[in-house]
Design goal:
The complex is a heterodimer of chains A (147) and B (294). Chain A has helices at residues 7-15, 20-32, 83-96, 101-104, 110-116, 122-146, and strands spanning 59-65, 71-77. With 147 residues, chain A is mainly alpha-helical.
Chain lengths: 147, 294
């Protein structure tokens, strides 16, 4: 079993791709790896409390705490055209899921700019940053609840 | 008979069905152009043979808030292998917002051989029609365009101001809360910098999506559109109408419906829209009664 890539490693790898078309392909390859929230965590209709605000791709996020202080992250993206949202969800899930809540809480919405650059519109950029903020909020809540 | 021709549109030739497109996928006289809000969408799968036109990178001036000039349009047309005789068919996500926006920009340069695929990506996908990731390459063409002509289909702020003072017809196609001033941006979207909320005085509130069937994104028949714009909103098709939204993308959809489907004689799209008007110093703004938010 190979270790999951770190978020920094993914940011560095994507950042090294300067051609917009090549970058789009890299991001789409992540979108292709998107795994929807498993049924044991949530089923449709999803609880609106997990819906990401300001995301027109209709994304949802869950953070399931484990006894060791780590969090399992899960996502759903209901808009079938939400390719960017699926790409970001896959990156967050692959790089942060299973990490300590304290580490996940430090994720910054700035990663959206670093990942997508010119492959994004103004509105969609804010929606994706909201996804990151939703993850951050859930992680901070988990940290507080562990006390 | 083509079902679209039965809907009573003034200019049905600007709308083609998914069936028509499926039958013309390899027609060399037709170029399919996908234009989306999500710029990753084309690369994730598109209609076979379709090219991508990015509304920011391809249609906007890279520096100023304006559209490309003639030379830029000619380069774009050459890149996507279009000649003046090519019929360009636009489609995209978001019920063809961006497809109509691209269609509108093409009209500024007089490329009249143009149509929109009714229902856009959503309908194509609902019907289980093929998508591909193969990016086509077409031989570059030599395309000579006219200079961009903004007079017929585009409105600028000062022209809108004069239009307001003359009691002209305006259609605000944003969400009801944006129109009322309760919010500065559409639901689920960020505030893109408007300092004031409300609407241009005298504007009728007709959210753009009322023109489409939400089930498949197709335009409503002419009679249903007339009920909304002419009946309910009392818009006179013989007088000029200016449509606006936030940056001119949603209003290009309404511009398309009013001009081509209902046959309004003079319709212009104010692309400066609320991101310009809501920031401009001294222009008049109205709020809906009872709304006191800022």
């Amino acid at each position: 079993m190979t270790a999951a890539p770190t978020l920094d490693a993914v940011l560095e790898m994507v950042g090294a791709v300067t051609d917009p078309a090549d970058r789009a392909q890299v991001l789409i390859s992540f979108a292709d790896q998107f795994r929807e929230v498993p049924a044991e965590v949530a089923t449709r209709p999803f609880d609106r409390a997990h819906q990401v605000p300001q995301c027109e791709s209709d994304a949802y996020v869950w953070a399931v705490p484990a006894a060791d202080g780590t969090l399992r992250l899960h996502f759903a993206v209901e808009n079938p055209s939400g390719v960017s949202a699926r790409a970001l969800a896959a990156i967050l899930e692959r790089t942060l899921s299973g990490r300590p809540a304290e580490e996940i809480a430090r994720v910054s919405p700035d990663i959206v700019e670093r990942l997508f650059r010119q492959n994004i519109s103004m509105g969609k950029g804010m929606g994706l940053m909201s996804m990151v903020l939703a993850v951050q909020t859930l992680a901070r809540r988990a940290v507080r609840e562990r006390g | 008979m083509n079902e679209i021709t039965t809907r009573g549109y003034a200019h049905p030739e600007v709308l083609v069905s998914t069936e028509w497109v499926a039958a013309h996928l390899t027609d060399p006289s037709v170029r399919l152009v996908e234009s989306n809000e999500d710029t990753l969408l084309y690369a994730s799968g598109h209609l076979p043979g379709a090219v991508h036109v990015d509304w920011t990178a391809d249609l906007n001036d890279p520096l100023r808030r304006d559209y490309i000039e003639r030379q830029g349009f000619e380069r774009l047309m050459s890149r996507i292998g279009v000649t003046p005789d090519t019929t360009v068919v636009f489609y995209g996500d978001r019920n063809n917002w961006w497809a109509c926006y691209a269609f509108w920009v093409f009209q500024l340069f007089g490329h009249v051989r143009a149509a929109v695929m009714d229902g856009g990506r959503v309908k194509w996908e609902q019907e289980g029609r093929p998508l591909t990731r193969e990016v086509p390459a077409y031989p570059p063409t030599s395309y000579t365009a006219r200079e961009r002509d903004d007079r017929t289909d585009r409105a600028f702020r000062d022209e809108v101001l004069a239009h307001v003072r003359a009691g002209g017809q305006l259609v605000d196609v944003r969400s009801p809360d944006e129109f009322s001033g309760a919010r500065l941006h559409m639901p689920d979207y960020p505030n893109e910098g408007a300092l004031r909320g409300g609407h241009i005085p005298g504007a009728r509130s007709v959210p753009w999506a009322r023109a489409v069937d939400p089930a498949d994104g197709t335009f409503k028949p002419a009679a249903a559109l007339a009920d909304i714009y002419r009946g309910e909103q009392q818009l006179d098709p013989g007088r000029e109408v200016i449509a606006y939204c936030r940056i001119g993308e949603r209003s290009s959809h309404t511009w398309f419906a009013l001009k081509y489907l209902l046959g309004f004689e003079r319709v212009r799209n104010y692309d400066g829209s609320w991101t310009e008007w809501g920031n401009a110093v001294g222009v008049p703004i109205e709020r809906s009664p009872g709304d006191s938010s800022s």
